[in-house]
Design brief:
299 residues, alpha/beta, Nucleotidyltransferase, domain 5, 2 domains, six-stranded mixed beta sheet, five-stranded mixed beta sheet, 9 helices, 39% helix, ATPase_NBD, DGOK_C, EC 2.7.1.58, 2-keto-3-deoxygalactonate kinase, DGOK
Amino acid sequence: MDWNEKYIAVDWGTTNRRAWLVDPSGNVSARFADNLGLMAVPPGGFEAAAADIRQQLGPWPMLLAGMVGSDQGWQQAPYVACPASAKMLADNIVWIDDNRSGIVPGVCQTSGHPDVMRGEEVQAIGAVNGSLVSPDAYICHPGTHAKWIRLERGQIAGFTTMMTGELFNLLRTGSILSPQMQSEAVDGDPFRAGLDAAFSGASLSSALFTVRAQYLLSNRPGDGASYASGLLIGSDVRAGLAQASPGEEIALIGRADLTRLYALAIESAGHGYRLIDGDRAFLAGIAAIVPYLEKERIS
């Protein structure tokens, strides 16, 4: 298929999917989004789900990234090891759907601290190839499993995953702290107190229980969600910044609602930050991969 013409870029995750139709000049001419994440696709239903995207955006070649390439997705795309570049991702795409659709592989780290990611690698590569960050940037990608990604010479050199978002959700829905964590986590005194406790080196498990203790001793619910969020994000940021150079600017990639509290934590720790729209970085990452596909087609 001719990648010099239009193509469809798809970010297909666990709970939702987003797709963009990109024209030959690199501009988005149409977009599509819904809540049909991979967990909502019935067994054997991915071909029909992909056809639905083409019905919305047209019969163009399609590149997909994210959890759609996991062992629970359409077809597993094996990880490529760090250091990872746009060319490495392109060379290891898994082609399906009569070669009309390609799934971008995730990235793994096998030496030292084992780790894996899917989806964030496209945004990280896109951030540098789209000139949104320097080739040696340090990236924080908040989310259910937050990523701290080190770029070196424009490649993903290494990364660390923090289960911050998942831990918050588990505490909120299935722990003894649940009744005190039903409000939204927002900036304010409780969130800042949580940050301060995390930055001072407080034991995370012990400090979290103070949400429960404060309620029992004061008989007031307080804002347990914001305090717990401050503790978790503060612990996440404290560990992430331990790998940063003094005063190094952190590139925050994601939606504004996901990056807002991380930005406050990073700033409180004495580092500057740069906010980068996650969709823009994703599209730039796919755009960095496409030229290698065209070269393969010509050769």
